Every structure is written in structure tokens, then in C-alpha cells.
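Hey, quick one: can you model this chain's 3D structure?
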Amino acid sequence: MAAKEKKTTRKKSKMDFQSFVSRIENMILTGKFKPRERLIEAALSEMFGVSRYTVRDAFKVLETKGMVTVTPFRGVVVSELGQQEVEELFVIRAALEQVALRLSTQNTTTVDIKVLRKMVKKIEDAFRDDDFVAMVAADTNFHDYVFQMSRNKTLRRMINDLRNRCHIIRYSAWSSPIILQQVMGEHQLIVDAIEARDVEALNELSERHISHGKEAYLLRLKAENALLK
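Sure thing. Here's the predicted structure for all 229 residues.
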């Protein structure tokens, strides 16, 4: 008598809740999940080996961060910002980042400058390798370090919250090769200004640096709205 075939079932990998939330958040921030893209509960459950209850709870967390929009009976989509909200976020973010940069210039050391220059090189290397994920990670680490130099945890938390809300804006800017080239060149200028403790130059650079994304996003939004008319 032939032996009965054993029924095989694929074991789901275990991922704790916070790791799962961080993974989805990272995929949104790096553009793997794009604005207005629908996030399917069952698909994410299968992809990451977590329960559908875990996926639902993760959606709630991401909704509080403004990263997804949950509509009853219609599902969950990656959030998109309207023109007025973009303008409001830009004003607040520019002001907070300028305060952080001013504080950072007061605390900077020669070691900090060396670290920042190495970080800039990592961003540029990822850019040359056309590695978008590595470039986003390196850019995030660079700005995190700059704001960490402010030694103001409350300010850093506020800036990080705004940066997460603005993830769509950064994606719009970095999807343009011309704008991306400009952004790459500004990192070195920011480090130079920090080293020189030139607050005026930093104010101008920081506003210009984040305005690329704002302008690119609003242009795309205007074009999409025109198509809908």
C-alpha cells in the first residue's frame, strides 16, 4: 500500500506588530506603495505572514500618522495631500527645520562634520548606483543626524512627524532626475554652511532643499486635476 502523501502547508513567518508597522511605513516612505494605491488586507497578511487583525491594527497606526486613509466599506489607500495642506505643512516644516539648523550650528564639532561628509558620500554613491531605497535611507540618516545635533528631542520629534506626513512630496521630487540632481548637490552645501556656522546660508538652503518636493508635487497635482476636468 502506497504511503499517504503528507499534506504540506506553508508556515507563515512570524513578525511582531511593531516590525510589521515599520515595514509598511518604510515601503510607503520609499515609494514602493504610491499615493492613492490601495492596500489590500488579505494580500499584506499573506505577504508578511501576519494575521488580518494585525494588518487592521497597523492601518489604524498608519492612519494616525497621516500615511494612509481609511474609508469605511471602501478600504485603505496611501494618503495623498491637497494643495492647501501641502502649503501649510511646508510653512511649518521650513520654520522648524531652520530652528533646528540654527541650534545644530551651535553644537557642531569637527567629528560631526566628518560624519556628515561621509553620509553625503553614501547618498551620492546610492544616487550613482541608481539605488532608490538606499538613497532614501542614506538621505534620512543624514537629516536625522543634522537635527540630532540640535540636542532638542521635542523639536526633532515634531520635524520627524512632519517629514513622515510629507513623504509623498519627497517621492514626487525624487521621481524627477533634474530635481534629484539639484537635491544631491545641496547636501554638501548644507554641510559647508554648518561647518562655517552660517545660519543665513542654512536658512536659504533648507528652504530651497524642501521646496523642490513641494513644487514638483503641486505641479503633478495640478496636472492630474486638469485631466479630471
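One thing worth noting: The chain has ten helices and three strands.
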